[in-house]
Write a structure and sequence with these properties.
By secondary structure, the protein is an alpha+beta fold. 60% of the residues lie in helices and 13% in strands.
Length: 215
């Protein structure tokens, strides 16, 4: 009896221990399996993120290549001068005005149409500023008013005729920032002072300006 009792007592003690060991082993296996699944999920997420980033980089490369082609076209076909700014891009197109006039010339409308296509294609939602200028003939106030009218004429054309739906503001700078100093009226180079300049401000314009400068 004593021998049987001792054997049963030993089994009673060992059984819970074995069960506990089995439970701990199961828990360890379960935790390990969950960790493997979590690692696999994380790897999948990293892979997806990497693929998305590579796709975005590829898209940006293609967009920059396409943008470069269109900007080169503006330069070669219309003599545009394009400059990267801290907040965007500046476009100086050969859009000039007759003396004491704010009417857009027919020969300049093609350049405006091409600029409008570039602006709407690459910089949707951007802020566009049309800066108007005058030659030095006349008073400061008169030329400020005249340059503002020139900018407003181009503003109207871009929004009503060229299909630009972004925010456009017109600013007149009068007889400042002269391209050909002291040239006015019928003097050589005076028409270059009677002009407009475009500034596009947006995150896209800033990014493309950096990209264009870097390449």
């Amino acid at each position: 009896m004593n021998g049987h009792y001792k054997m049963f007592a030993a089994l009673a003690i060992v059984a819970p221990v074995m069960a506990g060991c089995a439970s701990k082993g199961f828990v360890r296996e379960h935790v390990a399996a969950e960790q493997m699944r979590a690692d696999a999920h994380a790897d999948s997420g990293v892979s997806a993120e990497r693929s998305a980033r590579m796709s975005a980089d590829s898209s940006l490369t293609l967009d920059v290549a396409s943008l470069r082609k269109d900007l080169d076209s503006l330069r070669t076909e219309y003599g545009a001068k394009i400059t990267a700014l801290e907040s965007g891009m500046q476009f100086a197109l050969p859009v000039h005005f007759a003396y004491n006039d704010a009417t857009i010339r027919d020969e300049d409308k093609a350049a405006l149409d091409r600029f409008a296509k570039v602006a709407t294609k690459y910089y949707p939602g951007s802020k566009i500023t049309v800066e108007g200028f005058a030659d030095p003939a006349g008073s400061v106030k008169y030329n400020l008013d005249l340059s503002k009218k020139r900018a407003a004429s181009v503003q109207w054309y871009l929004s009503s005729q060229a299909g630009v739906t972004d925010e456009i503001q017109a600013i007149g700078y009068g007889k400042t920032r002269l391209v050909v100093p002291n040239a006015s009226g019928d003097q050589p180079g005076a028409d270059q002072n009677r002009r407009v300049v475009f500034v596009i401000e947006s995150a896209q314009a800033q990014a493309s300006g950096v990209a264009m400068t870097a390449q």
